[in-house]
């Protein structure tokens, strides 16, 4: 199975990228491509730009990666309780290419933050967006609180959080393989 993974952030020091990298390293036996949203920078979406210029090559490329994947792993950065603007812009462009662009895609949806809520606000937004508007199938989701206290040197150091994230990874892998998770 082909999996596309990305963090919803363009920060060079993104903790969401670190979480995605951890998750990707736990998954074996699948083709995994990790995307960097910095490679998909494009003008802010507007219907006028779309009608005048068509779709940016970056939007087409991101769309192609998603369409070719069986599963998608996303770790959402929270900016003022919502998606980071870079991710929102990419999703706006891609959704105009095809909506629903995530139909039949299995999704592992994560969020993290330095705070105790672990990106819970953006998780609520993400669950609604990715299941309802984009028609993806979120098979597992989890917030990861207090990232800087619970993650060191590429590893989760909090036993309960590690077990929780590993359980979500297993559920995602089972869904991709078409078997029931424990």
UniProtKB/TrEMBL annotation:
Q: What top-level branch of life does the organism fall under? A: Bacteria
Any one Gene Ontology MF annotation carried by this entry is: oxidoreductase activity
Matching entries from Gene3D superfamilies are given as: 3.40.50.360
Q: Name one GO cellular component term.
A: cytosol
- Alphabetical list of InterPro entries matching this protein: Flavoprotein-like_sf, FMN_Rdtase-like_dom, NAD(P)H-dep_reductase
> Domain NADPH-dependent FMN reductase-like: where?
1-144
- From which residue to which does any coiled coil extend? none
What PANTHER family does the annotation carry? Answer: CHROMATE REDUCTASE, NAD(P)H-DEPENDENT FMN REDUCTASE LOT6
Q: What is this protein called?
A: NADPH-dependent oxidoreductase
């Amino acid at each position: 199975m082909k999996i596309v993974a990305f963090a919803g952030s363009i920060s060079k020091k993104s903790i969401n990228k670190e979480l995605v990298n951890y998750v990707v390293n736990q998954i074996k036996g699948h083709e995994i491509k990790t995307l960097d949203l910095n490679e998909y920078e494009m003008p802010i979406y507007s219907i006028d730009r779309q009608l005048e210029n068509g779709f940016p090559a970056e939007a087409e490329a991101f769309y192609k990666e998603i369409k070719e994947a069986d599963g998608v792993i996303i770790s959402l950065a929270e900016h003022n309780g919502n998606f980071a603007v870079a991710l929102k812009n990419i999703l706006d462009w891609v959704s105009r290419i095809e909506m629903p662009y995530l139909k039949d895609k299995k999704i592992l949806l994560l969020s993290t933050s330095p705070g105790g809520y672990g990106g819970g606000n953006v998780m609520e937004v993400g669950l609604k967006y990715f299941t309802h508007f984009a028609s993806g199938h979120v098979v597992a989701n989890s917030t990861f609180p207090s990232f800087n206290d619970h993650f060191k040197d590429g590893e989760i150091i909090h036993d309960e959080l590690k077990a929780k994230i590993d359980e979500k990874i297993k559920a995602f892998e089972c869904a991709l393989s078409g078997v029931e998770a424990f």
